[in-house]
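Predict the 3D structure for this chain.
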Amino acid sequence: MSLDDIARFRRMCAQFRWLAVFMVVSVGALLALMYGIAPGVLSLRGDLSVTPMQWLSQGIWALPSAFYLFAVWSIGSAMGQLSKGRLIQPTLVQALRRVGVALGVGGVLSVFGVTNLIRLTGESRGGYLHFDVAGMTLGMIGGALFLLGRVIDQAGRVQAELDEMI
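Done. Predicted structure below.
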């Protein structure tokens, strides 16, 4: 790779980092507005009566999205580190693990956790499983990314050991 290619790669990583920050901030603000701020303001004005259990169930409903946003934030963080010149292999391992866990937990919560936790608050009666294909897919991809991070980490260790032998 030439120096121009490296500079272009770092610039693109920095741009992607800011795109991830924009997405997390904007979507996070919308989630806070939908599930917290707007019902709170309406409740204070007397236009809407929200019980504490309804607040809790709204927070539970937003949990998978919070994990998905953490995954996007982790990708942005890794891109920011790469734009500053950090080595790709350790950055990639850390990012794959974080993103994998976040997507996996978010997917499992989306399919199994949300419906059952809301059931505990008494706000819902229904099935024990929410058939959410997107949540299932993200959960599976998260698990695969986590395992891929472990494979890349192990490959780095083997490579370091082989380098010591030579």
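The mean pLDDT is 88.
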